[in-house]
Amino acid sequence: MKIFITGLPLEVGEDELTAVFGDFGQVKSLRIIKDRETGQSRGFGFVEMPVDEEAKEAIKRMNGGDYNGNRIKVAEAQEKPNTGGAGGGGGFKRNNNNRERSY
């Protein structure tokens, strides 16, 4: 199960967070999302735990808890909806002969 965590203190590292979730069971992967330019944590991340029951227990016990002075939210990650097509829809409108056309 993939878990989404938000509200993380900026100083928390992946090793520390792996150890915290490891108290509930095996951690398959963990990633704290970082700013591309500064490399600093953006305060959220993802944990993947292979055993659903352990992941659900981690969510139940950690959601809304205090983590180094920050209130964190922990929930099952939702998959991004597939919008289909590369780059998303789009197009433009232009006025041609006083009629609007979509392309």
Automatic annotation (TrEMBL):
Gene Ontology molecular-function annotations: RNA binding
InterPro entries: Nucleotide-bd_a/b_plait_sf, RBD_domain_sf, RRM_dom, SLIRP/GR-RBP-like
The name this protein goes by in its record: Contig102, whole genome shotgun sequence
Residue ranges annotated for the RRM domain, each copy included: 1-79
SMART domains: RRM
Species per Swiss-Prot/TrEMBL record: Pedobacter lusitanus
UniProt-listed SUPFAM superfamilies: RNA-binding domain, RBD
Region (Disordered): 73-103
Pfam families: RRM_1 (PF00076)
UniProt cross-references to PROSITE patterns, sorted A to Z: RRM (PS50102)
Keyword Cell wall biogenesis/degradation: no
Keywords: RNA-binding
Organism superkingdom: Bacteria
